[in-house]
Amino acid sequence: MSVRAIAAGCRGVLKLGAAGLIVGLHCASAVALERDIDPAYRLSAEAPGTAVERARLGGGEECSRHRAEFHGGAPDEQQRAQTREVLAYQGLVEEALAMRARSIRLLDELRDKITHRQALSGRDLLRLNQGAAAMLEQRAALYRISLAHECWLDEPVPDDPQAARRQATGIAMSLSAALVLYDNYLSVISLYRSDPVLRQHLNRADSGFALPGGELNRIAASFASPENRSRVRRALMWLEEHAPAGALEEENGDEAFRYLAQLIDQSPSRNVVRHVRPLEFVGNMLGMFSTLGADAFAGLSKDGVHVSSLLFGNAVGLVESRRGKLDARPSVLAKVAATARAGDILLEKTPFRLTDAFIPGHWGHVAVWVGSEAELRELGVWDHPVVRPLQEKIRAGRGVVEALRSGVEMNTLAHFLNVDDLALLRQDELSHVQRAEIVLQALRQVGKGYDFNFDVESTNRIVCSELVYHSYLHLDWPTERRLGRVTISPDNVAVRAVGGGPLDVALLYRDGEEVESGRADAMARLVQAQVVRLARR
């Protein structure tokens, strides 16, 4: 991707009208919403945020303190410090995605009760308040990151290329944190506000969880704030003009900046805000966006915003623009079910989901098929202590073990096949003992949390490709060092099925169509060249 590409991506978000660089825990008041702003979107000389925000989170002094504490050493030390910051920030972004998944699942449960006129139980209200408190803590953390790097915008661009790159990375981190907050509102918070019962509850104060009254309304006001919009615009324009040359090139570019640029470019709110001007509803904070839900997006389609089919309830907590090309196709489901054997590896690609672009390589997700009751009886493990608690799920067809942002869980093949591309990988020469051990190792991971650190050397939390890493213990897997971590990607798994590797491609679908011959060659073409080179070292 070139600098022009990021510029084009930035132009797509220049009309962003919401979270901005100053979105925080306590956001712009209704009075602030009524203030007009300069048509050229010139910034105010005041510190960002309201008086309450500045008092709680340090205002403009926060960035200066942060610069002195973390970016005041020698150039090499500054670079290492910034890399560590991006590492920590990536974990926070992943946690935000996981929180969206949990929040949407809870919303579905609560809405079902409300629809059937059932009272919300004490446990329901506890989960609701706990979730609200966690969301506010996360908003504060994202706000701090945005605020701690905003003053990079006031610095002249250094002549030294490395220093200029650090400045661009800092600004990109500030901007992307603001966009994550905006995305959180669009994909989750607005849906809670669309329900009168939940909206009223979440606007009530609760001292037991330090929830102030009217907080949901303040968040909506921040979403609509034209001042926030001007700050986002300023950062976007800066990146469009000053994105460092080569920073986005795959081979030689700066990985931290490239990750942040992808976050900005792939923000799910980008296409929505491109055609919605916050000034149109500045004076009515209880208008369109106060009751924003999936149905409210439908009217935007006439303006070219293809959001009427957005699915907010998918398992990974991300926004989908459509269903997968293999979804709800009985013939495909029947063939995959008939072909799969216990211990097989499932790879998928879903280009219609937000973070597919963040995953290096072609494949975006990997899972393990643990088989049916009959297969596990044949392997002699049906009554194994690891299997016994999960027998009902296996009998219900939940034989796909996968690590989602909500944790490691078991799902059906039909659920898994909401994809465009699918590969079924198998090691044919496995003994019964080896295949049984793979199944048991995969099932041992069920219930673990998601590994926001993407560290293959940890076992208490699991990311999708780590599931295979910890299940196929007898194979060597290629790993990579990304942003300071040792990681394994789905393409690192796929590469073991090409070039004479130990895995075979038992089944392959590409762009919704089955590849019936030359599957190994087709797989080799899909896997990134640099991953292949890595595996051959």
From TrEMBL:
Pfam families: Peptidase_C92. This is YiiX/YebB-like N1pC/P60 family cysteine hydrolase. SUPFAM superfamilies: Cysteine proteinases.
